Prior knowledge:
The longest helix has 18 residues, at about 290-305. Strand 11 (about 390-400) and strand 12 (about 405-410) form a beta hairpin. Mean pLDDT is about 95; it is low at about 1-15. By secondary structure, this protein is α/β, with parallel strands linked by helices.
Amino acid sequence: MTSKKSFKSKINLRARGRKVNFETLENLKDLLKIDVFRRDHLIEYLHVIQDNLGYINEEYMTALAELLQISQTEVYEVATFYHHFDVIKGDENKPPSLTIRVCESVSCAMNGADSLIENLDSYYKGTVRIQRVPCVGRCDSAPIAVVRFNPVDNADLTSVKKIVDSKAYDAEIPNYVDFKNYIKEGGYKLLDKIRDGELDKERVLSELEKSDLRGLGGAGFPAGRKWRILQEQESPKLLAVNIDEGEPGTFKDRFYLETDPHRFLEGMLIASEVVGIDKIYIYLRDEYAASRKILTDELVKVSKHFSHSIPEIELRRGAGAYICGEESAMIESIEGKRGMPRLRPPFVAQVGLFGRPTLEHNMETLHWVRDIVEKGSDWFTTQGRNGRKGLRSFSVSGRVNKPGVHLAPAGITVKELIDEYAGGMIEGHEFYGYFPGGASGGILPASLNDIPLDFGTLEKYDCFIGSAAIIILSHHDRAVDAAKNTMHFFEHESCGKCTPCRVGTSKAVELMQAEKWDIPLLADLSQVMTDASICGLGQAASNPIKSVIKYFPEEIKNGSKS
């Protein structure tokens, strides 16, 4: 064990920017409880500071820079990039000891988020910080308030106050299929067969290709083709699992993590075995505290069961940045940097995480691997409807009786989805319009209720299915208001790297507040954002604007101001 004195003699205490406070340095070491410091764990270390202090001040950032032997500027840039870090500059006041985050994205806004925020502000009068935040991935239970880490579904002042008064700040862990019960139900037998050579890897890959399983995070790239590409790359090869579902309207990944996490984990290990993966990184959005506890506990059990016969697995914690759902931005974040998209080529499959070939997958894609291989590709492909193939996990929220994750045939129409799965419209609400693919997927009117919901079916309507997040609007809602809400979200979440997105989202928010929209200017701005933005955030951010202009002209004619 290195003594404080000897440690002090080894570190560089030269004046580079702010001087290092040795006491703070030692306190930080005690907090982190490690002896070897890794640059790529910068965000993990910032989380430790934030969780323990409730904020991150300049002294701790300076100390962290010293431990990692990087510039103070680099630590500051990363800490201030992510929304969940409270960076205190100079003599700024510390935030209140308790923060209540209230979601203000589309589904929550429709269900009274503004009134909830006003009631909380009025009651707590500054003793508790009430913070407006973007989607927290619980749109089916809107409005949502998160008391530190504990989400309050269908929140009102009474239910939030109950949590605060009882100091129940940790997320409740739902009932789920744990390792013991998953094994009991035949779990990991398929993986064992592949590892033992009983089931040929080529056959596994062939079944995956024939199933036409697509990337279910939104991009829709064929999973089998990804595996083929990665098989051909030189080792070491890495796997990055994307569970940073920050798209307003989507919550399917959280649903599966909190019900049957090992089905995804087995799919992940099967992919690793077939492709030849050397190390796995799971990137989980920070808002999913219950999912994080589940994965932390269950990964320990998996590692003990398989000992050293599976790749090392690291669980990484996001820090509140929607942009990190984009694969290259996620990779930057795993490396401990600001989550900014990379220019391509080179593509992630060739030059990805830490410069190595990387297989990147959404969690739900891996969730289906076991079922497809065990039951055969035909089982999966025959599940579709209206000429489409497969199953889709639809995150349904808004004005329906049964919001939630509904497993339904690919190609189902929104009318069929509402009537057969979502329990119909809420009494007193008539179907008016819908988001077919989350905040960025555009908005369609009720008259277009017979379009098959799947990849490639919505593009001619200037929309797309994305992660299959369906938000249902009624005649009590307005598409203009929904579009304003989503554009505010995209302005907030833009990483700022490219001008079309950074300036375009901000300018669009401004223009959309006008009593009468300047349609030619908004249309031109939308096209520039689509054509010139580096990544999908800026390219798709204007879709709701285009939809309102095209499908809801009456709302603009009558004045767009709320």
